[in-house]
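Researcher: I'd like a structural prediction for the single chain below. Treat it as a standalone chain; there are no partners to consider.
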Amino acid sequence: MRAVIQRVSQASVIADGVPTGSIGKGLMILLGIEDADNTEDIEWLSAKMINLRIFNDAEGIMNVSLKDDGGDILLVSQFTLHASTKKGNRPSYIKASKPEVAIPLYEKMIARLAADLGKPIFTGRFGADMQVSLINDGPVTIVIDTQNKE
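Model: Treating it as a single chain, here is the predicted structure.
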């Protein structure tokens, strides 16, 4: 799984012309799923994302996690995170999972994040044409790949 995690002061998503999720302070997460991903990746990534200490403490130092800060999550599926641009100018998405594999993993990630955070997760709609709006706070943007844990 690849996740692009952005600390936001607000974020929202519209899927096929219909608003599906909106948050204030929290994390806007774009999530790409590949066939090698599994439940262990979900558990590890969920814990990592909600415990990242990327929110400011009273002294303005990034030392507080989302879980401790009380913010929300807006999770949006994005297969293009697995684009291969090695050859030519047209990206290949061969590594991105097909819906029959990706949807169950995406739904498990939503459930796991909700359980780990202790509240509902806001989402886009898998496979829909979506417009995402956000105000990146900082800016703070972190990329995590469960197949290449750094």
